[in-house]
Amino acid sequence: MSDTFVLDGEDVPFVPGQSVLQAALSAGRYIPHLCYHPEFKPHGSCKVCTVKANSGLGSRYASSCTLPAQAGLEVESATEEMNELRRTLVQMLFAEGNHFCPSCEKSGSCALQALGADLGVMTAGFRHFYPDRPLDASHPDFLLDSNRCILCQLCMRASSEVDHKHVFVLSGRGITKHLIVNSASGRLADTDFALTDKAAEVCPVGVILKKRVGFAVPIGQRRFDQRPISAQALDDAPRPSDTSRGTA
Amino acid sequence: MSKKLRVATTSLAGCFGCHMSFLDIDERLFTLLEYIEFDRSPLTDIKQCGPCDIGLVEGGLCNAENVHVLREFRKNCKILVAVGACAVTGGLPAQRNHLTLADCLSEVYLTGPGVEHGLIPNDPELPLPLDKVHPLHEVVKVDYFLPGCPPSADTLWKFLSDLLAGRTPSFTQELIRYD
Amino acid sequence: MTQTLQTILARHQFEPTRLLQILCDVQEAFSWIAPETITALASALGLPRARVEGVVGFYSFLYSDAPCRYRLLFSDNITDRMLGNQALITYLCEKLWVERGRISEDGLAYVETTSCTGLCDQGPALLVNGWAIPSLTRERLDMIAELVLAQTPVEQWPRELFAMENNIRRADILIGNLLQPGDALRAALFAAPPLGEAAESAANARSWREGLPAAEHGSMDLLEEIKRSNLRGRGGAGFTTGMKWEACRNASCEQRYVVCNADEGEPGTFKDRVLLSTQADLLFDGMTLCAYVIGGGGRGGGSTHGFLYLRGEYRHLLEPLNEVLARRRSAGLLGRDILGLAGFDFDIEIHLGAGAYVCGEESALIESLEGKRGVPRNRPPYPVTHGYLQCPTTVNNVETFCAAALVAAHGGDWYRSIGTAKSAGTKVLSISGDCARPGIYEYPFGVAVSQVLADCGAGETLAVQISGPSGVCIAAPEFGRRIAFEDLATAGAFTVFDTSRDMFEVARNFAHFFAHESCGFCTPCRVGTAILRATMDKIAAGHGTLHDLAEIERLDRVLNQSAHCGLGHTACNPTLDTLKRFRPSYQRRLKSLVFEPAFDLDGALAAARRMTGRDDAGAHLSMEAET
Predict the structure, then answer these.
(1) CATH number of the domain at A97-225, out of 3.30.70.20, 1.10.3470.10, 3.30.230.70, 3.30.450.40?
(2) Using CB atoms within 10 A of its CB, is residue C329 exposed (0-12), middle (13-18) or buried (19+)?
C-alpha cells in the first residue's frame, strides 16, 4: 500500500523517498519543471516547479522536485498564482541569456521554449541583459554555445554522476555564474568529452549541440511541434510498472 | 455598421517578414477589411501616422529613426502591439549587441574584407545607429506581444479577431511560437 | 610545482576538503591563483581541474585574472559611503595612477570596492591584500599610496595603520563577564566550580549543579540547563539553541561537528569582530561545551571536532585566535581528555572565508568548509543530522556560543531572568551611522530603539536599519519598538540615518550588495537581484516610473515565493521598507510619465556620434517623446 498526498484537490499516491514532483509525474500528473530530469537527483535550482504546500505546520512555497512527498500534504500547483510565478521565472531566464529562437537549431526541441509556450509567455518582459558569452566550436563533434545556458546543471550532473568525467562545472557567482569546461585552455576540444557521454544528450536548451545534425528534423516534426512539453514530460516519467527508469 | 477601426503598421529593424505573414491570412483579409481601415502602413503608403486604434510594429530598434517612428506610433495608437521576434526580443539585429558599435562600424566600413578607402558615412540624412539594439518594450509601453519569426497568419488572425470582438486576446499553446 | 605550493599543500595534508584554505594561502603567497597553479593544485589534490577553477571563481577574494602586488578593496557599505569613501577611492586612484577596477599596467595596484568589512564604527575602511585598515582619511591614504609606490611589503607597513578600536560603549553580562578561560567549562564539568575570582560572578551564579554527581550525567544536565535558559540563536533566525544541540546529540553517527559561524557578513554588523577580539576564551568555552553536549560528554557519542569559520575580512584575527587556541591546548582546555575528563576529546581549527556573504547561511558555510562553492544546500536534511561531510553538525553564531558559556557558568534560570519572557538574555548591537558614539552596545532584550538612540548620541534620526539589509528599516514613529525576537529580531546591526540622508540611496546600496552576493544557484535570486539593482539604478538615473515601483513589488513576490535561501527572500526588503516609509525619496526621482525608457536614449547615440563626427539635430534623441 502506499500513502497519498493531495495535489490540486486530487489524491496522488507516493512511495517513501519520492518528491512531490516525482510522485506527481509517476501518477500522470504534470507540474511544470525545467532543471529536473528523471534520471538525476533533483536539486531545485530553476524553481519553475515551485508549489504551495500546506501541512499542519502552515503553508509554504517549495520546489516540488526536492519537497519530500508526505501523507496529508496539500499541494497547490495548477493555480494562477503558481503559473504566474512560473511565467515570471521563464521570462527571467529569457531575459538573462541570449535566446534567439529563430536561429537556434534546438528550436522546436528546446525545453525552455516549449515551457514558455505552454505557460503562455509572450515576451521576456524584463529588460534584456544581452550578456557577452562565449561560443566554443573547438570540439570536432560539438558546438558549445553559452549564450543559451540556463544554468540548470544537467550537463554537470550527467558528466559527474554518470560519465565520471566532470567535463562541465560552474564558476562565477550571482548573475556572472557561468559554465566552464574541464581543461586548462578552457576549450571543449581539450576535455575528454565524447559523443557517447550522457552529458551530450541532456542539455534542455541549445548549449551543447552535436555538429552536422543541426536542422535535420523539419519544422513540424520536432520534439515539441506535435505535443506540448506538459504531455511529453508524462511520457518520460518513470511509472510504477516501469523499472528501467529510462527516458522514452 | 459602426465606424471601422484604424490600424497602422510599420517595420522598424525588421525584415517585413511579419507583414508577409499578415498577408498570409489570405481570404480572411476580406473579412478583416469590413472591420478595419489602414492608416500609415506599407500597404497604404501613408507617411505619417494619424490617430489609430491599433498599431502593429514589426522589428526592434537599431537607430534613431526607429525610435522616432515608434514614438509616433505610441503617441497615435490606442493599442500598440510588438509583432514578431525582433520587436519582442530585439531579434536578429540584436545579435550584434555583444559587440561595441565602434567595432561594428569599423568592420563594415573600414576594415572588413573588400573594403578599400573606407569611410564611416556621416550624412545627416542617415539615421544614427544606437549602441545596442533594443526590443520595443524597453523604450515605450507595449500593450501586446506576438512572438514568432514571424508570428503565424493564424496567430495574427486570432489576435485581431479577438481584439475586434472585444475579447482579451488569448492563444492556445500551438499558436505561441518563438521561431 | 614550486616549493611554496608544496609547503602549502603539505600544511593542509593534501586534503581536498581543505581546498578553500589552500586557495587562500596560495592567494596570499602569490597574489593570484595562476591557471597553471589551478592545474597543479587539481592534480595534487586529485580533483577535476574545473572544480578548483569553479571554487576560485566563486569567492571574491580569490583572483585568477592576473598577479597584483597590492589589492586595495574599499569597504562599500552605506556607512562607508556616508563617511565619504567614494571621494577617497577617487583620491587613492589618482595618487596611484590607477583606474578603479583595473590592475595597473605594471601589476602593482588594484583599487576596487568590496562588501561591508565590519568596520562601520571606524570607517571608511579598506582591505589591503586582505588586511583591514580602518578610519581612512586623505592623510592615511597618502601614507598608503607611498607604501604602495615604494613597494613596501604589507607586513612591513606601520602597525598603527592597522590599529583597531573595540569601541565597547555598553557592556552587560556577556561583554562584562569576569570569567577566566575555562571557568564555564569547569562549572559544567565539575560539581564544585571555581567560578572565577570575582565575587560578583559567584553571587550571580545559582548553584544549579549542586547535588549532581560530577561529570557522570554532566552533558545531559548541561543540555537541560541550556534548554532551561531559553537561549535562542543570535545569528538572526533565533532557533532555540537547546533544541538544536539536542537534535544533533540524538542524531546517530560516529562523528559530530561543532561549527562557529564567524562569517559576520551582514552590512552594518561588527559585534563578532569585537567578541572574537575580546571574548575568544568564552567563545571557545561555549564551543567546547557544545561538543560536550552533542558528543554525550565524551562517552560513547563518537568523536567531536570543531571549526571556527572566520570571514576573510577578519584575516587579522586569525593569528590572535590561533594563539588563544594554542594556549587553551596547553592549559588542557582543548585536545585530549579535556580538564582531565577521560574520553572528552575536542579541538578547534579555524577556516578562513574568502569574501562570500552567502556563506553566513549555515548550509552554504558547511559547503565552504568542505572546500566547495558556498551554495546553500537543499533542506531537509538539516545540518544537525547531515552537516559537515554529512555528519551531525551544530552551527551557531559567535554570540550564541558565548551566551551558552554564560549559561553553563551561571545557570539557565539566571539567564532566563534577564531580557523578556520570549527573549532571554542580552543582545550585542553593532551601532554605526549618524550617532556621536558608534560602537558595541550590549543590552538586555527588550530595550527600546529610542533608548539605544539616546545612548549612542543619535540626533535628528530619520531611520534605523535593524539587522542590516536583510532586516527591517524603521522610521521615527516606530522608535518605541523593542529589540527582541517578538518585536525587532536582529543579528546585531543597528545603523542610524539622520534627516540629512536619502533613504533611496541607502536602499540602492543594499540592492547592489544583494546582487553582488547572490550565489546564483536559483533563477529568482540570480536574475531577480540583478533586475532589482538595474531598476534602482534606472530610478537613480532619473528614468524611473511608477511602473518600476510596481515591478519591484512583483520581484519581491517572486523572490519570496521561490528563492532558494534567505538572501533571495530578503533582497527586496530594504527597497520595500524605504518605499513604504520614505516614498517621497523615490517619488521625486520619478518622471511623471507612466513609462520611461530603461536607458538614456541620447546617450545610446553617443558612440555613433563619435564615430561619424556628427552633432546635428538628427544626431540626438530627447528622452521624452516629441509632442
Answers:
(1) 3.30.70.20
(2) middle
Regarding an ipTM greater than 0.85, the answer is yes
Quote the mean pLDDT of chain C. Answer: 93
C615 inside domain: no
Q: To which H or E segment does residue C329 belong?
A: helix C318-330
CATH homologous superfamily of B5-95+129-175 equals NADH:ubiquinone oxidoreductase-like, 20kDa subunit (3.40.50.700)
pLDDT exceeds 70 at position C528: yes
Residue C175 CB coordination number (10 Å): 22
Residue C481, domain extent: 427-501
Neighboring chains of B (3 or more beta-carbon pairs < 8 A): A, C
Mean pLDDT of B53-75: 97
Other Cβ atoms within 10 Å of C335 Cβ, number: 15
* DSSP codes, chain A: --EEEEETTEEEEE-TT-BHHHHHHHTT-----SS--TTS-----S-TTEEEEEETTEEEEEETTTSBP-TT-EEE-SSHHHHHHHHHHHHHHHHHTT--GGG-TTTTS-HHHHHHHHHT-----SPP------EE--SSSEEEEGGG-----HHHHIIIIIS----EEEES-GGG-EEEESSTT--GGGS---TT-GGGS--SSSSEEETT-TT-SPTTSSHHHHS-HHHHHHHHSPPTT--S----
- CA-CA distances (angstroms) from residue C324 to A104, C317, C380, C396? 61, 11, 36, 20
**B120:C611 CB<8 A:** yes
**Touching check for A116 and chain B: CB below 8 Å?**
yes
Are C251 and C360 in the same domain? yes
Chain A touched by B125 (CB under 8 Å): no
Split at pLDDT 50, 70, 90, the class of C208 is very low
Q: Name the pTM for this structure.
A: 0.94
Q: Do A128 and B90 touch (CB under 8 A)?
A: yes
Q: How many whole angstroms separate alpha carbon B148 and alpha carbon B136?
A: 15
Residue C483 sits in a domain of what CATH number? 3.10.20.600
Our CA-based measurement puts residue A248 at a distance from the nearest CA of chain C, in whole angstroms, of 28
Residue C180 per-residue DSSP state? P
Distance CA B73, CA B79 (A): 9
What residues does each domain of chain B span? 5-95+129-175
CATH class of A3-78: alpha beta
pLDDT score recorded for residue A55: 87
Confidence category of residue C299, pLDDT binned at 50, 70, 90: low
Q: Do B121 and C612 touch (CB under 8 A)?
A: yes
Q: For residue C29, how many C-alpha atoms fall within 13 Å in the half-sphere facing its CB?
A: 17
Chain A: nearest CA to B12, how far in angstroms? 18
